Amino acid sequence: MILDRYIARRVLAGVLVVFAGLLALFFVGDLITDLDDVGRGDYDYAAALGFVLMRAPGRMVALLPAATLIGGLLGLGALAHGSELVAMRAAGTSVARLVRAAMQAGAIVVVAGFAIGEWLAPPAERAAYEWRESALRGRIGAGAESGSRTGLWGRDGERYVHLGEVLASGWVRDIRAFRFDPQGRLLSAWRARGASPLPSPDTPPSGEASASGSTAAAALPSPGNPQGRHWRLEEVEISRFREGAVEPERVRSMRRRLPADADRLDRLAARPEWLSIPEIMAHTRRLRESGLRTARFEASLWSRIAAPFSTAAMLFTALALVLGPLQRTGLGARITVGIGLGIGFHILQKVLSQLGVVYDWFAPLAACAPIAALGLLGWWWLRRGAA
Questions:
Q1: How many Å is the maximal CA-CA distance in the chain?
Q2: What's the pLDDT tens digit per position in 178-236?
Q3: Which of 18, 47, 151, 267 shows a CA-CA span of 20 to 30 A to 166?
Q4: Cβ contact 96:88 at 8 Å
């Protein structure tokens, strides 16, 4: 037990040192990149710093596998450089026990990474982009959570519009609008099950209804015809308030104007990195029910599920390298091999993920194939080193 804890501490120390260095490096790089937008709207240096800080948990999750590989090479390499691994093997310590001791440290890293990736990174990433969008644009804001809980609010003259959830390509679910008179009295309200952007900016005269034959659209006039803000609303329930009475009406579809264009809403749409695994699953189900493509969210779901195994495979590979081909090499060679292997693994994962989205490949295969390849390579190296 004492030997196991000693090996685990050395591995954790190496991972933490490399992790801190990589995080600081990428933090500076992200901040420099984001300075290009300083000066637009209310986006100043403090806002840029806050944006990068809020994105730090997501960056931690992205850097963890590479930090585990390089840190594991450093920690275990230090044991090999001091001939401690040789002494352990000479004292009868098996390779299986060395693997078990190193993977105990890996379990701590995996649990910490999973917790950050599921509970801290998604809301922080979402809040960062919503804050940035608000500072840059300042006209429409997003709630603290993307989805049906808060959605997006906008104002168009005397009308207030709430967009329940932006799914993809500007397709919106659960839209509500409230129109008030100058004295603040509610004149009319409507709710639509969904809305999709219309390809043409041409719009019928103010108050004209869609081809459904209803004149209910006249309850909410649309001043002006700006490009790209016209939508087709589906399954609309309208209520007009007149002298203490409510006049309800149902319309199958109608054409209206919303206070945001499709491109803008697409930028505010729920992104996979903003959602936890259960939220991605629910969002994917809603996309499928709406007849929209789910490949991007399925790829993200399986990448998130495979992330802990990716981190564990990185540490296993580091141990295999130290006990195998890099047993007698110096520190610089281990770092070089670790960086090269980490970059190659990351590129392979990204390429397979993007190809899976484009060609609708089986998402679990695209996410797990690089991990399986890395694990087999590490197992081969470990067998060679133990021989």
A1: 94
A2: 988 888 888 889 999 888 877 654 444 433 333 333 333 333 333 333 444 678 888 99
A3: 47
A4: no
Indicate the average pLDDT of the chain.
81
In eight-state DSSP terms, residue 199 is S
Find, among 249, 276, 12, the residue nearest to 123 by Cα: 276
Question: Which regions in the chain score pLDDT beneath 70?
Answer: 137-151, 154-157, 167-170, 199-229, 259-270, 290, 385-387
Amino acid making up residue 220: L
The pLDDT tens digits of the residues spanning 230-256 come to 788 889 999 988 877 888 889 998 888
Contact 188, 220 (CB under 8 A): yes
Strands 159-168 and 171-180: antiparallel
Residue type at position 354: Q
Q: How far apart are CA 374 and CA 319, in angstroms?
A: 12
Question: Does the predicted TM-score (pTM) go above 0.70?
Answer: yes
Question: Of 344, 369, 374, whose CA–CA distance to 355 is shortest?
Answer: 369
DSSP state of 216: G
Distance from C-alpha of 334 to C-alpha of 73, rounded to nearest angstrom: 6
Q: List the structure tokens of 180.
A: 């008030």
Strand partners, 239: 189, 248
Q: What angle do CA 30, 34, 39 make, to 5 degrees?
A: 160
Instruction: State the residue for tokens 């000066």.
Output: 39
Check: CB of residue 53 under 8 Å from CB of residue 105. Answer: no
d(CA 64, CA 113): 7
Distances (CA, A) of 126 to 101, 137, 218, 273, 353: 37, 16, 37, 8, 22
Question: C-alpha 248: how far from its chain's center?
Answer: 41
Cross-strand bridge partners of residue 307: none
Q: CB neighbours of 372 closer than 8 A, spacing ≥ 6?
A: none
Q: Are strands 152-156 and 159-168 parallel, antiparallel or unpaired?
A: antiparallel
Contact criterion met (CB below 8 Å) for 210 and 255? yes
**DSSP per position, 241-270:** EETTEEEEEEEEEEEEE-SS-HHHHHHHS-
